[in-house]
Amino acid sequence: MTNPPPDRRIRVAVIGLILATAYLLVGGLSFRGGLLPRAPVLDGLQPPAPYQWVKPPPDRVKDNKPPSGATGTIPLTSLGSAGSHTTPDGQAQILFDSNSVPVPPGQNSVSVSIAPLDPGKVGPPPAGGYHYDSNAYKYDAVYEPSGQPLTTMTVTVVLSFATTADHIFRWNGSGWDALPTTPAGQNQLFAPTDRLGIFVAAGTAVGSAAKQASPVILVLEVAAPFVLIAVVLIVVLGRRRRTGSPGSRRS
Fold first, then answer.
1. Which helix (H) or strand (E) holds 14?
2. C-alpha–C-alpha distance, residues 188 and 27, integer Å
3. Are 167 and 91 in contact (CB under 8 A)?
4. Would you say 27 and 40 are in contact if contact means Cβ atoms under 8 Å apart?
5. Could you give the CA distance from residue 12 to residue 174 in angstroms, rounded to a whole number?
6. What digits encode the pLDDT tens for the residues 3-31?
7. Rounded CA gap, 124 and 199, in Å?
8. Tens digit of pLDDT for each residue in 53-112?
């Protein structure tokens, strides 16, 4: 089996790089133009969406969008209580595993509600130099059809945050209790809790929210190395052709 000549291999490489660059450009333009609003080709390159505040900071007053609340149902079956519920904007979530809550006789589901609040109206920030970095969220859950509140549980609360939060806190009626917190994903924190109530994300570091860069600029930054390599290969291919042409050789 013979190998293809070097010029052909170079041409194949150049074509591949051109196609890769075109793919990236199409991805960026389709995202910008709204052709792929839910699953853009370059979704992983985008910073987190701007945080949606109940009471926005001064620099977000003009472009802030109100946050979402949510209600939902977690079914109770013979296998337990596994399920989750998330606000439409993705900023607050609750996770149930199969053993999160007991299943009393006659109860077939858990009704969950999540409501965003201004944490400043709940109380002062947690002690120790913490500042609020999210809305407060009030979580409630009751059994259905009885309407009885859950008193025994082990669930996970998930909160998004705006800049630099590193802890989730739960309101105890007079102050905030820190929960064991795990960071996950972009600007998200997870914390287990044995009771519901009001939760908030807070941190001690001061930072600013990531700016939304243009998808086209991000694409160009990623595509630039591909373009540079393609240009180099085209130049090399051109030199090989000139060197190999009959008129360039001495008799």
1. helix 6-33
2. 26
3. no
4. yes
5. 69
6. 556 566 666 666 666 666 665 555 555 44
7. 13
8. 999 999 999 999 999 999 999 999 877 788 999 999 999 999 999 889 999 999 999 999
